[in-house]
Specification:
It contains seven helices and 20 strands. It is α+β, with helices and mostly antiparallel strands.
């Protein structure tokens, strides 16, 4: 595609130089609907993005990219909780900070997660022991076929570990336009992860947690404004107890966490690090030096560089541990989203 077509470089946090046929900034559900109807008319692919912080473009996009910029935050002060209705195009971290500034606690563990609020439910963003599902009351979606807005309550969103209905049944034909959050006034800090364990639960404030989370993230994770990345590139693998025990017999120091469902979560970053892959580079793509779970655009990476690197990482971890990593990031080819595992298998 020629460079006369709009660039998506600023619209994907990996900073890949890819183009699209049409790029539309939508501030209302009606604008999203109109863009979709036009793409249906032309029979061209259609993709909605927030800040592009969880996508890997494999190629130029052969259709319309809509940037969801629906704004607006309303806050209801209820007896036991704060209820927030947040437009999908509100920046997530700004939301976290602005709630704390208003004296509303509950989102502090989720500070500095890149992306828009409307993207948060898709992978049920989570960090330092809190997931979106813990605070989400509902998600409003625009049904592109009916033109109506529908409300899905938390249960209907089918939230799972980095997963939701928006990656499956509601992946196409629906666009998230707003998210409803419920933050109880009876606040308890969640201090189960990393350096947060050093805070005293009796006196730690939400701001203390926020600053500790920001400090931990900034020390390990590259700032996408400086170095292109999409956060964790792979999901943490979930294995059976039997698989975990067999691995522990060979690698006694392996971090592992029991999940509520009885399975065990492994730390993908640790597995990658054990393969001595920190700093490993293919073309312009590299495994981040401080956090092996993050693949970076080190120097004018091409989509093919990132794919080759992801494939190499998956193969090395698979060969050593017989655990086969799956991307957390969504892979987008010219015609739309494709199966990320198939691309790197
Ligand atoms: P870390 O502290 O080095 O820990 C490595 C992994 O072990 C994490 O992914 C985490 O799983 C798991 N873990 C650590 N302590 C745990 C505990 N007490 N209970 C259960 N699981 C535990 O992780 P990190 O890379 O610095 O990341 C810190 C947090 O930020 C994690 O929650 C991580 O998911 C989140 N984060 C997410 C992204 C993203 O793009 N999705 C990027 C950076 C960081 P979980 O991932 O399940 O929490």
């Amino acid at each position: 595609m020629s460079s006369q077509h709009p660039s998506l470089k600023a619209d994907n946090t990996l900073g890949l130089e890819v183009h699209t046929q049409k790029r539309i900034v939508a501030e209302t559900p009606a604008a999203i609907l109109a863009a979709w109807q036009a793409s249906q008319q032309d029979q061209t692919p259609f993709l909605v993005l927030g800040e592009g912080s969880n996508v890997l473009f494999l190629d130029d996009f052969a259709g319309t990219v809509v940037l969801n910029r629906i704004k607006g935050i309303t806050i209801q002060d209820e007896y036991e909780s704060w209820k927030l209705h947040v437009g999908a195009g509100e920046n997530w971290h700004e939301l976290v900070k602005s709630t704390l500034e208003k004296g509303i606690a509950g989102l502090e563990n989720l500070a500095l997660i890149p992306g828009m609020t409307g993207s948060a439910p898709i992978q049920n963003i989570g960090a330092y022991g809190v997931e979106l599902k813990d605070v989400c009351e509902y998600v409003d979606v625009l049904n592109l076929h009916s033109g109506e807005t529908e409300r899905l309550d938390r249960e209907a969103c089918e939230f799972g570990y980095r997963d939701s209905i928006f990656k499956h049944r509601y992946q196409s034909g629906y666009v998230i336009v707003a998210v409803g959050l419920c933050l109880p006034k009876q606040w308890q800090p969640v201090l189960t992860y990393g350096d947060l364990k050093t805070l005293n639960p009796a006196i730690a404030s939400a701001w203390d947690v926020y600053h500790a989370v920001c400090q931990m993230r900034q020390s390990k994770l590259p700032d996408p404004k400086v170095t292109g990345n999409v956060g964790s590139f792979f999901k943490n693998p979930v294995v059976t107890q039997a698989q975990c025990s067999a691995l522990l017999a060979r690698f006694p120091a392996m971090p592992h966490y029991l999940m509520p469902e009885g399975e065990t979560k492994l730390a993908a970053g640790w597995l990658i690090d054990q393969c001595q892959l920190k700093g490993y580079r293919i073309g312009g793509a590299a495994v981040h030096q401080q956090q092996a779970l993050v693949l970076i655009n080190a120097d004018h990476a091409l989509p093919a560089d990132i794919v080759a690197l992801a494939r190499a990482v998956r193969a090395r971890v698979g060969e050593k541990f017989d655990v086969w990593l799956e991307p957390e990031v969504r892979f987008i080819q010219a015609q739309g989203e494709c199966n990320a595992v198939e691309v790197i298998a």
